[in-house]
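Quick illustration for those who missed Monday's session on complexes.
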Amino acid sequence: MTAATPLLQVDQVNAGYGLMPVLHALSIEVRPAEIVALVGSNGAGKTTLLRVLSRLLPCRGGRILWEGRDITPCTPDQVFSQGLVQVPEGRQLFDRMSVQDNLLMGAYRRRDKPQVRRDLERMYTLFPRLGERRGQLAGSMSGGEQQMCAMARALMAAPRLMMIDEMSLGLAPVVVQQLVEVLADIRAQGVTVLLVEQDVQVALGAADRAYVIENGRVTLSGEARQLIDDPAVQQAYLGV
Ligand code: ATP
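Prediction with adenosine-5'-triphosphate bound:
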């Protein structure tokens, strides 16, 4: 891999469910230490793309490259081990387990136990609210706290690319702002972020670059700052 090699390259990928095609020759790339957003309306195919990347859904064409290596034939376990870790839509925490046990579940594949302990403390620094509530059952926490717990659990797997599906869904703007600030800290610690968002304002505010997906195709891409000012984006997604 050279400095110019993207961490992740999705190259002309097709995917779908049963007879229904959803992704059509979709291509994106994510470079190391970037925050990249995928935006688009309901049903555009964003979650489908994350499923393909986690290898939960097969590619019907095209390739997925990780640091230039073809990982299209890999299993979900294998891509997880390489460091592609997803924070699923709806958080999917272990509701009847404590916050701390949820975080430790994120690290269940890791053998570097002393580092896992240090990472646990790092999570409580990154998300002080989780530190205060480490003994509380995850299912009894607020939506924002649960999202923090889901992100921290994914980080406990020591990801290189963290893929977050609908981070802001159902959360108050002040909580979303806190999470956006944490994303910048996460990136500063060397984790690359792929953010899937229906809230285009949030996504473009948080990301370096973004792709607009419509009907399973990339229709626009570029620097997030420039896309915010793009008339097509403003009209379709920002209500301007
Ligand atoms: P949203 O933000 O609403 O989740 P999205 O961009 O993430 O939208 P997807 O969830 O990827 O969109 O859905 C893309 C298309 O695939 C939709 O038409 C959806 O109905 C369909 N789809 C998603 N999951 C399945 C499934 N398990 N079986 C059949 N069709 C599905």
